[in-house]
Amino acid sequence: MDTRAQHTERDRSSSPAGSEANSDTAGQEGRSRFALPSQVIDRVPGGRVTLTVLICLLFLLALSAFVTQPFDIPSRSMERGLRVGDRVLVNKLAYRFGSKPQRGDVVVFDGTGYFGSADYVKRVVGVGGDQVVCCDKEGRLEVNGRPVDESSFLYPGNSPSDVLFDVVVPDGTLFVLGDHRGDSSDSRDHLGSPGGGMVPVGAVIGRVDWVVWPSAHFRHITRPGTYARVPSPADGAHG
Known about the structure:
Blueprint: H1 2-43, H2 48-66, E1 68-72, E2 87-91, E3 106-110, E4 119-126, E5 131-134, E6 141-143, E7 146-148, E8 165-168, E9 173-177, E10 199-200, E11 204-213, E12 219-220
Antiparallel strand pairs: 1-2, 2-11, 3-4, 3-11, 4-9, 5-6, 5-8, 6-7, 9-10, 11-12
């Protein structure tokens, strides 16, 4: 009985000391772990609030540089879908990792050396290898021998084109048109310029996915189904 009592007393007396040592060590580690952030907060004017704002700004800059970028519509060339002053979000990851622009996509691209020293927003009508013709006997745009029904996005009262053309799009480039054909400077207007009015795929900044402002115009931009029926260049009849 006495032996068991003595053992119990020794266990009780040694345990708190060990706990205190462990607690002190943990406390020192915790203090050292949070010392640097605390010093940074103390040195920044405005403290934690200013630091939070700076972190948010850095996050937004990284988001804009690599993921998505806002773009203000500067002209009427993409009416009726995109109006002057609309703010859209450009998906900069849409054509990364092996993906390429598709017929019907609305894209923003750097027109330097091709259209002018600015960024432009247009609809992709032809991709590498496509034959794009305007117009067929019924006045429709043709891609690889297939007429394209543009009624869902073409500006009311516009014809597919007042300029006649028959082009084959070189590989690695795009043939682009504005939806408001009567008020758009696009591939048709640069057929005789260096590059033949074609936009290099590498000049594409991204795909327009959303209209986010004004709120009354908020909507998701999708690829018109009419382009899904266009055959590949190998299947189309090149003239």
